[in-house]
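Propose amino acids for all 534 sites.
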């Protein structure tokens, strides 16, 4: 079966990626739970999280996270016309991606001692040295991520979503395995694992990237007819660069959001990089579950609809994705905001992460959760731009906002305290998404956004009162139940969720029947799948 075989249904693709996102987010939370238990919100955890800044920026510079978006439209058209030429084009892209990723990674490793001063300006010389050590271990992972992204693009082109769905599971599994096992072989005579610290987790990052992001998709692509050869030039390479360069050069607020939390968090003192990271992990869970799967799965179909000149169907598909995402994220984000303290207690509190750390992370988490709807709209809308072959508009718009935000982070947010950093982040992302939506409607009409603000208003009206009642229920239950932190938090959060569901579902069924039935259908599908597995 060729790479342009029979199209799978978008719903099935979204379901596969949603299942992967759920498991991946769960494993990511387990990973961070283990890290928080062992290291809390201290220097070692700060340095580990800060070590990802340079590797992530290299990934952004080479548009690794957008490889499928940049290569799929060109490669799909090429396969339709001439399969041999398509393979030549792919090999050219892969070769230059491999060279660029190796050169940048090697440069990062060589100059890591200097880069840490930019990555974590608030760290002491001893912390900077340890950070450079972590960075040198993690950096090679980008070679595997970036080269593996080329193979993943081939699999997406064939509508093979199951193999790419395994990548984050293998990656997180390797981090956990190496982080827990390797310290057993390098004990410190006085302090157990303290000397080895988080080195095992860093090794797990590179190992997991090699196995999950590179070797697995490459092996599957090879079985399906992958042809690799040395091709230095191809007539379509300039077209690829024209599409990819804005993504490479445009450093948007969305791409750099996590890095800003780490860089400017280092100026706040010990532990704040970790606390901001833990809060962001929780806030990104509903975003990943409700936005990423639909956005990634819908993109090949949006491209196909444009190729077939089905503009009305394109608008309808985009509108459906936007409405489904925003209609589900608002109640979820508000409920999680009401129970944020209990969520932090359940997921992170314990070991070296005590109640003081929970209370410090609480406002950071709540602020990030309230910005979740903007993230959902971005994830869907930006792919509509990319489906049109327009990578320039999101890149320029996002870069301009980044330029404005950098001095605001340094001169305004940092002096105000930790809460101001995620607050500024949320405002920046919201302004960015609003700007993109305005440009989209001016160019393509308002069909995709017809009724959008009505849906937002209805969703808020149906969600705010239940969320407030859920918060009251959680507070009452915590005062009534025995003071056993984990059990009490679980029971209170469960009770709050029941109160929220009891009040929200009737309101949603009456005022937002489409969203209500979408939610019920998703629940029915998951129950059906679970029963089928049994």
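Proposal:
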């Amino acid at each position: 079966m060729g790479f342009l075989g029979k199209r799978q249904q978008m719903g099935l693709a979204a379901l596969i990626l949603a299942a992967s996102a759920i498991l991946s987010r769960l494993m990511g939370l387990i990973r961070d739970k283990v890290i928080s238990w062992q290291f809390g919100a201290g220097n070692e955890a700060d340095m580990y999280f800060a070590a990802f800044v340079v590797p992530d920026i290299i990934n952004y510079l080479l548009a690794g996270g957008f490889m499928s978006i940049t290569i799929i439209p060109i490669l799909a058209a090429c396969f339709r016309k001439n399969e041999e030429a398509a393979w030549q084009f792919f090999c050219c892209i892969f070769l230059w991606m491999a060279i660029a990723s190796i050169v940048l990674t090697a440069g990062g490793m060589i100059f890591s001692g200097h880069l840490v001063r930019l990555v974590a300006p608030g760290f002491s010389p001893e912390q900077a040295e340890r950070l450079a050590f972590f960075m040198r271990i993690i950096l090679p992972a980008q070679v595997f991520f970036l080269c593996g992204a080329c193979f993943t693009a081939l699999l997406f082109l064939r509508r093979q979503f199951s193999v790419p769905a395994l990548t984050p599971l293998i990656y997180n599994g390797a981090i956990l395995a190496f982080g827990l096992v390797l310290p057993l072989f390098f004990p410190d005579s006085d302090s157990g694992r303290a000397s080895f610290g988080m080195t095992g987790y860093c090794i797990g990052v590179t190992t997991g990237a090699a196995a999950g992001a590179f070797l697995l998709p490459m092996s599957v692509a090879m079985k399906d007819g992958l042809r690799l050869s040395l091709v230095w030039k191809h007539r379509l390479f300039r077209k690829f660069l024209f599409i990819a360069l804005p993504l490479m050069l445009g450093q948007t607020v969305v791409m750099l959001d996590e890095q800003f939390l780490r860089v400017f968090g280092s100026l706040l003192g010990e532990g704040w990089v970790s606390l901001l990271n833990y809060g962001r992990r929780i806030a990104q869970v509903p975003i990943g579950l409700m936005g990423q799967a639909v956005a990634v799965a819908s993109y090949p179909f949006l491209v196909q609809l444009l190729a077939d000149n089905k503009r009305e169907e394109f608008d309808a598909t985009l509108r459906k994705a936007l409405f489904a995402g925003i209609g589900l994220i608002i109640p979820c984000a508000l409920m999680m905001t009401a129970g944020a303290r209990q969520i932090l207690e359940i997921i992170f509190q314990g070991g070296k992460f005590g109640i003081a750390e929970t209370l410090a992370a609480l406002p950071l988490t709540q602020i990030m959760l309230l910005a979740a709807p903007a993230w959902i709209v971005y994830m869907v809308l930006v792919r509509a731009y990319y489906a049109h072959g327009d990578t320039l508009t999101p890149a320029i718009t996002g870069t301009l906002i980044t330029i404005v935000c950098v001095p605001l982070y340094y001169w305004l947010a940092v002096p105000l305290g930790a809460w101001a950093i995620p607050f500024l982040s949320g405002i920046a992302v919201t302004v960015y998404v609003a700007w993109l939506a305005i440009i989209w409607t001016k160019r393509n009409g308002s069909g995709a956004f017809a009724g959008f603000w009505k849906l937002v208003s209805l969703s808020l009206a149906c969600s705010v009162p239940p969320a407030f009642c859920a918060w009251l229920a959680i507070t009452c239950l915590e005062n009534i139940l025995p003071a056993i932190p984990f059990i009490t938090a679980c029971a209170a959060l469960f009770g709050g969720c029941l109160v929220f569901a009891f009040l929200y579902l009737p309101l949603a069924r009456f005022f937002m029947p489409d969203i209500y039935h979408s939610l019920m259908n998703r629940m029915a599908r998951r129950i059906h799948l679970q029963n089928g597995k049994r």
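The mean pLDDT is 83. DSSP finds 22 helices and no strands in the chain.
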